[in-house]
TrEMBL record:
Name the UniProt record assigns to this protein: RNase H type-1 domain-containing protein
RNase H type-1 domain boundaries: 1-91
Superkingdom of the source species: Eukaryota
Molecular-function GO terms, alphabetical: nucleic acid binding; RNA-DNA hybrid ribonuclease activity
SUPFAM superfamilies per the UniProt record, alphabetical: Ribonuclease H-like (SSF53098)
Pfam families listed in its UniProt record: RNase_H
InterPro entries given in the database record: RNaseH-like_sf, RNaseH_domain, RNaseH_sf
């Protein structure tokens, strides 16, 4: 969009102009959907400010402007050069200044009343609220900045490119993650659970910030990856074992990796994506972390006795198999004609019985 917006500025206003872009979204948007977007006050559009600025600068032109879609990464000289420049721009440490101010004459505000729906109205109110200073201050939490910072660092180490904050927040709502797991990750990213430091500032409750098992300061990272209470160690060992048969190298989960697991994108040695492995990793890591959290709460809040190692493993197997079973059903419905690429009864935990016995293993799911 940025390229599209800047591309025509070096051409005289009264000269005809043809813009070639590989962005179908914006070419179609500007040629087919613009009236709808404007009627709806751009509520459903992304990059609204840049989009509006682009529309205004194109409208100010006095000659014909033609937009053409071209296939990206197909060796077209201008397109390849534009990609190169975009990549250079992405690696810049300081953002370029870009004037997004719109002249009063071209300013459109709000949506047409006849086009507004209840859903659009809610989105509009939400967008307005999110722009207020009070909301921005409330969002600017130290714990959130730390959580997101660590997730970005891990994602860039694994994927080779640093995701934006928007990409990270969106990844927490990845469709592969269960509804409760999404909420758990969102709360964890915000440091929203009442653990560790939260209790330090409440007189008389300081001891709640200490791990009852280890006697050290508790944090979500401690609970999920360091605590010596039965649970986390056994569960992470099982996840690693589950990966044994995979050609993709196992990435040991840690706090930042958990928060960025929605961005997992494994590739083979030829650089081809392995979506099945990425999907499996997302599910197994997030479900395992959520199970450790639930077991800690049962132990600390509900004062239940810790499970023995075998009990922990059985419960993990049941959790993962249930989740993968659901995934399989959903996948089978979607691709009803496709034959399942897994065997329904692969492994069973030693000593496990009934529901705790494994119905299938994650390693045999083929996505
Ligand atoms: Zn502990």
């Amino acid at each position: 969009m940025y390229r599209l917006s800047l591309g025509h500025e070096s051409v005289q206003k009264n000269d005809d102009l043809t813009i070639h872009s590989d962005s179908q979204t914006y070419v179609n948007g500007l040629t087919k959907h613009l009236a709808k977007w404007e009627d709806e006050g751009y509520i459903n559009s992304e990059n609204t400010e840049l989009l509006q600025a682009t529309v205004v600068s194109l409208r100010k032109r006095e000659a014909v402007t033609t937009l053409h879609w071209v296939k990206g990464h197909s060796g077209i000289e201008g397109n390849e050069k534009a990609d190169e420049l975009a990549n250079e721009g992405r690696l810049k440490e300081d953002c370029d200044e870009f004037n997004l101010n719109i002249e009063q004459n071209f300013q459109l505000s709000g949506a047409k009343l006849c086009k507004i729906t209840q859903s659009l109205a809610y989105k509009f109110i939400r967008q307005k609220k999110m722009k207020t200073l009070t909301y921005r201050i409330a969002l600017d939490r130290r714990a959130t900045r730390m959580g997101i910072g660590r997730a970005k660092a891990c994602a860039s180490e694994i994927c080779g490119k640093t995701p934006t904050e928007g990409m990270l927040w969106k990844s927490l709502r990845h469709k592969d993650l269960g509804r409760k797991v999404r909420y758990f990750l969102w709360m964890t990213a915000h440091g929203g659970y009442k653990v560790g430091e939260y209790w330090n500032s409440i007189p008389g409750y300081e001891t709640r910030g200490i791990c009852q098992h280890c006697g050290t300061s508790e944090s979500m990272e401690h609970i999920l990856f360091e605590c010596e209470a039965p649970g986390q160690k056994e569960i992470w060992e099982q996840t690693e074992k589950l990966w044994d048969n995979k050609p993709t190298p196992w990435i040991k989960p840690q706090f930042g990796i958990l928060l960025s697991c929605g961005l997992t994108d494994f590739k083979d040695t030829d650089g081809n994506r392995i979506p099945g492995d990425s999907r499996l990793y997302r599910i197994v890591v997030s479900e395992s972390a959520y199970l450790i959290w639930k077991m800690r709460n049962e132990r600390v809040i509900n004062e239940r006795d810790p499970l023995p190692s075998r009990g922990v493993i059985n419960r993990w197997l049941w959790t993962i198999n249930s989740r993968l079973g659901t995934d399989l059903v959903l996948t089978s419905r979607k691709f009803a004609s496709a034959k399942p690429g897994w065997s329904p009864e692969i492994s069973r935990a030693p000593g496990a019985s009934g529901a705790a016995g494994a119905r299938c293993t994650a390693a045999n799911i083929i996505m």
